[in-house]
From TrEMBL:
Gene3D superfamilies: 1.10.8.60, P-loop containing nucleotide triphosphate hydrolases (3.40.50.300). This is Sigma-54 dependent transcriptional regulator. Keywords: ATP-binding, DNA-binding, Nucleotide-binding, Transcription, Transcription regulation. It holds the Pfam family AAA_lid_14. The keyword Transcription regulation applies. Residues 148-377 form the Sigma-54 factor interaction domain. The keyword tRNA processing does not apply. Coiled coil: none annotated.
Length: 460
């Protein structure tokens, strides 16, 4: 965990950040003088100092302290250009006015910590690794800087579980609807863990043809089957000392399940066509949106493997249950998409936010990403228009007005998301390709295929 030290008088506006910085997962201590902070720093290493310039004004020579206050941001209630220049010349990473809004300060804190981490890791990487492979708790999960946005209680609980689980080697099953961020969470878990200096390998079991999956995962010996002209290292071997993320584990064929069980039980991998085994040390994280227990009951998934994989569970809430996170995500996506397409930043209006909240996002964050991208690209320069989100329900309304009989048969209330998806697919499959339907729903083509199976949606 990163430790931040505030140095400011009791009445300072900077004091207010103490509480919310702790809420973001930083360990914070506060001191009124540099001397006092120095003593504390000797006992507990501080990764960053936030200093109210009023404290520096009292000193005759701040440079004397530079060595003891290595990484710092200066904040000033009487901010001026000349003081800013001298603060930066004396080693401050940033000089900001007081008060500074939470988001801006947080961004600068995260930037400085990230820069320091990179600098600290570069020369000492190997030494650090061999002395003490510490858990990487630096990621302030939930903030835009961490790449995973999530301030609502459900996500905060999830992050708190992740931090605990990351300390262990326990196998983790991540569950959640399509597009909720399962892969993102699996990778964050790896980065939080002691394995973070080693590889994290992601495999989508549904995307690899069934006849290749064993050789891809476990590797094969030369001559093991027709076409095996060389020996091939499997992805499990590649992930040695790191984390293997198996997405859509429910799609793993039954023969491969037996091999995977061996990896989990014995810590050994046997290549296809090999007579000997090799030791591997991997943490396995899996994800599925399927009911694995139901698959066990149907004989499609091995029960022994199920219990091996289901040691810890992380449940990702659907986007519609994340309250204000939807706005946070949408805002962040608008900024990111503008940057990506080189479009001047848009104002995120209340009307736009309202439209975002009115939709139920069956395709979750992925659907939101796609919808925002459409809105950013299609809107005029002066205004981000909600109509350009081109959400599936808007299309439904338009169709209704056009008196489409199938659409009109949709119940107006009490429709489940599955009903909605089924009707949407049935209504559009004559005129659109699978890729276009999946895109409109904000889900992958693979997810659409899976939902067709699950909901028994016939193809045209
Ligand atoms: N909390 C979040 N903050 C920011 N971006 C997110 C968040 N959750 C998901 N995303 C983004 O949404 C997209 C979908 O996420 P991801 O692929 O991890 O979902 P998934 O649950 O694994 O999907 P699937 O079930 O279809 O494989 C990615 O681009 C990811 O970066």
């Amino acid at each position: 965990m990163h430790h931040i030290t505030l140095i400011c008088p009791d009445h300072s506006l900077l004091k207010e950040s103490e509480k919310w910085l702790s809420k973001y997962g930083f360990q914070v201590s506060s001191h009124f003088s540099i001397e006092q902070a120095k003593k504390h720093h000797k006992r507990v290493e501080s990764h960053l100092f936030l200093i109210d310039y009023e404290v520096i004004r009292q000193l005759d020579d701040f440079t004397k302290y530079a060595e003891d206050i290595p990484h710092h941001i200066v904040l000033d209630e009487k901010a001026s250009l000349s003081v800013g220049v001298s603060a930066m010349a004396q080693g401050a990473s940033y000089y900001l006015p007081l008060p500074t809004n939470t988001e801006t300060l947080l961004k600068h804190v995260v930037n400085t910590l990230e820069q320091n981490d990179v600098a600290a890791l570069a020369p000492q990487n190997t030494e650090r690794k061999s002395v003490e492979p510490s858990v990487n708790e630096a990621l302030p999960l939930g903030t835009p800087g961490s790449g995973i946005i999530g301030q609502c209680p459900l996500m905060q609980d999830l992050f708190s579980d992740m931090r605990k689980i990351a300390r262990t080697n326990a196998t983790v099953l991540i569950r959640g609807e399509s597009g909720t961020g399962k892969e993102l969470i699996a990778k964050a878990l790896h980065h939080l863990s002691q394995r973070h200096n080693n590889p994290v390998v992601s495999v989508n079991c549904a995307a690899i043809p069934e006849n290749l999956i064993e050789s891809e995962l476990f590797g094969h010996e030369k001559g093991a089957f027709t076409g095996a002209t060389t020996t091939h290292e499997g992805l499990i071997q590649t992930a040695d000392k790191g984390t293997l993320f198996l997405d859509e584990i429910g799609e793993l064929p039954i023969e491969a399940q037996a091999r995977l069980l061996r990896v989990l039980q014995e810590g050994e991998v046997r290549k296809v066509g090999a007579t000997t085994t090799q030791k591997v040390d991997i943490r396995i994280v899996t994800a599925t949106h399927r009911d694995l227990m139901g698959m066990v009951e149907e004989g499609l998934f091995r029960e022994d493997l199920y219990y091996r994989l289901y040691v810890m569970e992380l449940l990702l809430p659907p986007l519609r249950e994340r309250g204000e996170d939807i706005s946070l995500l949408a805002k962040n996506l608008v900024e990111k998409t503008c940057l990506k397409h080189n479009i001047p930043p848009y104002h995120y209006s209340k009307a736009f936010d309202k439209a975002i909240h009115q939709h139920s996002w069956p395709g979750n964050v992925r659907e939101l990403e796609n919808a925002i991208e459409r809105a950013v690209i299609l809107s005029p320069p002066e205004k981000l228009e909600a109509a350009n989100l081109k959400l599936a329900h808007q299309e439904r309304h338009t169709k209704k007005n056009n008196s489409n009989p199938i659409e009109q048969s949709l119940p107006t209330s009490g429709t489940t998301l599955d009903d909605y998806l089924k009707h949407f697919v049935l209504t559009h499959q004559d005129e659109f390709t699978e890729t276009q339907i999946a895109h409109s729903l904000g889900i992958s083509r693979k997810s659409l295929w899976e939902r067709r199976q699950k909901l028994n949606i016939p193809k045209k």
